[in-house]
M23 family metallopeptidase (Leptospira perdikensis), 392 residues
Amino acid sequence: MFFGVLFGLYAESNVTEECNQEWICLVQTKDDEGIELSVRNYNPHPKVTNSVLLNVTLVNFKTDLTFPQFVVVKGPTPVFITKFLLEDKTKNAFHSFSFRVRPGDWDSVHDDSVSYLLPFAQGIRAKVVQGYNGSVTHFGNFVHAIDFGIPVGTPVHAARKGYVMATESRYSEGGFRRDLLSKANFIIIQHDDGTLGNYAHLMKNGVVVKVGDMVDAGQLIGYSGNTGYTQGPHLHFEVHKPNRQLEVTTIPTVFKTQYSDRDTLKEYYMYWHPKQGVDLSTVDIFDEDIQICRLNAKREKVQCGETSFQLGENFLVSLEFVKPGNHRIEVDISTDGKGFEPIKLDWVADKNLALEARYVSIANNPKLIGRWKVRVRVNGEEKKILFFNVKA
């Protein structure tokens, strides 16, 4: 943001303000000696904190300060920067101000004693599809971000209490395209220690809080989506603060999970809120995470829980494990009373993945019409039997 003004002599004080949308205002108090400069937050809420990088261009003015200047503006009280004094009152003078703003406090120190709640409701299980140091987008300044693989419309809850600093909910498109980098819906919540929690890729109109709200940990704040720069539906969560270059610096965090009150989340692991008196931390896979799914023409999974297919279609036997491991998976697929040899699938899971699947093509043979049975065993233990029908 840039402001430039030709300066004349003033017989009395003259106060002007130049504001940058919803972030900050430059307050200039002019008299015949020069200009006093202050910075205030546009939003007068006492919780609002912004970090500002301020620069100036001066002709016929002097100041003892060296620019650029770094300043943190907290609450409604203006921060005095300096007074620029006229050097020669008989000559014209010129000044211009430029500044950049980033929400938050670059001098903040994260309260590492805080254990964050998982940012979704009780009863939901979600997998970390990209964790710290993720190869897709979680590197550089975003190295400590987490992506939870949850469907569009999943309720999003605050992981920590704080003040709603900013929101966006107007976008509807998502995809792995650079032009969508700035088009994700989000909620930014400022915490008591000055750091910020960012909840991103929310659905259109999927924000249920507003700027200025105080929210409690666990409170519903919005609904997940697939907007902005994304390869599929998920919730992006990070805690960050600005640095002196006005860039985001993400901060490592711990969470309350089924494993621990202070758990560092791992890529491809599934997490859920702990429930008192219930210990499911030793479960390898849940019954509902063994599914028959429909595939499209590109053999992409598009719908699970299917019970009816047609001749010539493909289907997927999908197993989503709680955590990666070298599980042995055996799947027997047979048709009722048709005399066909069962299809046998037998493989060892990839230790670096938590989703295992094999696809099967249904031949275009009328003899295959009828009821099919899928028997799934993991590490020698029968886990589930599924049925579906094949139609012409």
In short: Residues 2-103 form one domain. Confidence is low (pLDDT under 50) at residues 1-12. Residues 254 and 264 are 5 Å apart (CA to CA).
